[in-house]
Design goal:
The chain has about 300 residues and is an alpha+beta fold. It is built from 10 helices and 14 strands. The protein has helices at about 10-15, 20-25, 25-35, 120-135, 150-155, 185-195, 200-220, 230-240, 245-255, 285-300, and strands at about 60-70, 80-90, 95-100, 105, 115, 140-145, 160-165, 170, 175, 180-185, 240, 265, 270-275, 280-285. The strands form 5 sheets. It has a 6-stranded mixed beta sheet with strand order 11-6-1-2-3-12, with helices on both faces. A two-stranded antiparallel ribbon has the order 4-5. A two-stranded antiparallel sheet has the order 7-10. A hairpin with a 2-residue loop joins strand 8 (about 170) and strand 9 (about 175). Belongs to the LytR/CpsA/Psr (LCP) family. Keywords: Membrane, Transmembrane, Transmembrane helix. InterPro entries: LytR/CpsA/Psr_CW_biosynth, LytR_CpsA_psr.
């Protein structure tokens, strides 16, 4: 399960997209889990947003950084998956940008540039958040980190996810034919890992990631899945950290749920792969990066 698609997005959607009635019914369990995985940031300052976002009374647009980390004993790991979400309740839309893990950018707090996924190994969630802020020019309000184990477990708890596969391929002993597929956790992991045999490379993998995300959302909204909520919560407590207070989770569930149903994927795919001192980096296209910055700022009403 190394270097796989490891994201909190699947788990976060489970938390914030289930019906309000269910949240009220299992309030005690959810609050306990939310408190267990809550990890406050020591430095909340941002040069872009001077005051913390208000999602409880003002229903302001907000952003979240999703980190998928392969943590092993004795190794803090790297965030091989980095996804930025911006959520606008007025437009009822969510924009999702997958940042290539090899993106060459400034390590905020250090005096050098490196691959963006190394920010986590240098300074954890906080440095990752500030480095992404610097790259995209938007405030990152929330950051959520997930270990890969929960990806497989939650999909299995939900009974699998449906995807529409557009590329016939084999990967790690599994065959994925073209058409609608129902994938379990391990199959989903393989489905989103493959990139070298995809003619569109990492960007094809990003499309498959989005399909699995949408599949998790669809399954989590099914009332019959809710009865497995205790198993989901146990998985979250073991594998998730986030700086989202419980009260904000409730506000997102109550006021932002419709926005999470419509996800538009943005791409960073016009850059070039460059070798520096024997190491490959992804150099973003400046024009594309500027356009992404403008689009995300506009969506966040900045």
């Amino acid at each position: 399960m190394k270097k796989a698609w490891k994201w909190i997005i699947s788990t976060a959607i489970v938390l914030v997209s289930t019906s309000l009635i269910v949240i009220l019914n299992v309030y005690g369990d959810i609050k306990s889990t939310a408190n267990e995985i809550y990890t406050p940031m020591e430095d909340k300052s941002s040069e872009i947003r001077m005051q913390p976002v208000n999602i409880t009374t003002e229903m302001e647009p907000f952003s979240a950084l999703v980190l998928g980390v392969d943590e092993r004993e004795g190794d803090v790991g790297r965030s091989d998956t980095m996804i930025v979400l911006t959520v606008n309740p007025t437009l009822q839309t969510t924009k999702m940008l997958s940042i290539p893990r090899d993106t060459y950018t400034e390590m905020v707090g250090k005096d050098f540039k490196d691959k963006i996924n190394h920010a986590y190994s240098f300074g954890g969630m906080e440095m990752s958040m500030k480095t992404v802020e610097n790259l995209l020019g938007i405030p990152i309000d929330y950051v959520v980190k997930v270990n890969m184990v929960s990806f497989v477990d939650i999909i299995d708890i939900l009974g699998g996810v449906k995807v529409k596969n557009t590329l016939n391929f084999n990967f790690q002993g599994e065959h994925f034919p073209i058409g609608e597929l129902v994938l379990n956790g391990e199959q989903s992991l393989k489905y989103v890992r493959m990139r070298y045999d995809d003619p569109t490379g990492d960007f094809g993998r990003q499309n498959r990631q989005k399909q699995v995300i949408q599949g998790v959302l669809d399954e989590s909204l099914s009332i019959k899945k809710v009865w497995n909520y205790k198993s989901i919560f146990k998985t979250l407590e073991k594998n998730v950290e986030m700086n989202v207070p419980f009260e904000d989770l409730l506000s997102i569930q109550k006021n932002y749920g419709d926005s999470l149903k419509k996800i538009e994927q943005l791409y960073m795919n016009k850059g070039t792969n460059t070798k520096l001192d024997g190491i490959y980096y992804y150099m973003p296209d400046e024009g594309e990066l500027q356009q992404l910055q403008e689009d995300l700022k506009k969506h966040m009403e900045i």
